[in-house]
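Narrative of activities, Objective 1.

The group set out to show that a structural description can be obtained from nothing but a protein's sequence at a throughput compatible with the screening campaign. Below is one input-output pair from the validation batch, recorded exactly as produced.
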Amino acid sequence: MGWQIIWTVLKKELLDLFRDRKAWIGTFLVPLVIIPFVFFLLGNSYSNVEKEAREYVPLAIHGSSPLIDMLAKNPGVRLIESADPEQALQAGQLRAIITIPERFDEEIKAGNTAKLLVAFDSTNTKSVYARDLIKQTVEAYSKEIVAKRLQQAGMSEAAIQPIAADFQNVATEERKSGGMLAGFIPLMLVVSLASGGIAAANDLVAGEKERGTMESLLTAPIAANHILTAKLVAVMMMSMLSAIASLISVSLVFSMGPLGGGDNAAFSFAFLSPATLLVLIVVILLMAATFAGLELMLSTIAKSFKEGQTYMSAVIFLAMVPSYMLMPQSPVDIAEHYYVLPVFNGVALCKEVFYGKVDPMHALLGIGSSLVYVAITIAFASRLFRREGAGLKN
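Output recorded for this entry:
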């Protein structure tokens, strides 16, 4: 009987939510359209900046040396004369200023180290590219000089390179794909789980209180726990739909967007195994339940829809902090205590999933502690919800 009541209330809540355009926009439109579009714009923007930086590299030169001739052979390099090169550099009209001392070539011929000064603007991406181009040219020119010096001394280049290191990457193609995703997928996934249910949770309690429909629902011959369970499941479903939409959007980005070409052409989800996929599903379910319980609790506390929106901003913060803190870390470097902290445990397990190997002990700690946090959160939400119902009945 209880489950029939819960199912009836759940259908009513879902029907109301899906009639609301805001729910559709927040759950599906933003992850499926906006996120790929933003990645596409970012990829095109970086590509255009790099293309422009390569095609036109205006430089100002003070002094002379064969090094300049070698530098001028690079595609896009233009030697510009400017009355005020420092001002032109700051204005973006020049990418770099090279100052060559008077006795530069004489110092080189004498076997000494000659120094030159390169001024660039680190806040300008194109100027940084010019710096790198100059650095590469200087290194190539230096290598030619060293080769001549060694030849004059009757030595080979091997004499100054006694050790040659051969670096081999042991990561498989699947792990490379997973490692690339592990940097930002947990952030996107956790934020989607937190934000996807906010509109629903706020509308299902604070919104109903503001519209005056909560009183009639709580005074009906239905247990408050049944109503809360239906609302909890509804919020969880919206959160999980948002998370699934985010995962689909990532697939679209890597398959059709500018990030899908080049080194990422062979990108796949082959790093996922049935075991790791099961862990990922359980983690998503538990985090969705945790956020749903917390959001319903805050929505119950709020006296109005607007006040509920204010409280919900804390949920986004709670989701983002662990994600950003663990973003640069590899699973092998994540400390054990993170697997028992709320949200941190879900992020840490997600990173292990995308690296293709989940430690059984970490999975036990993370899932076990998540179950505890879900129980605590739902218990507090239930207590507040029953108190709200008791207050209305009195």
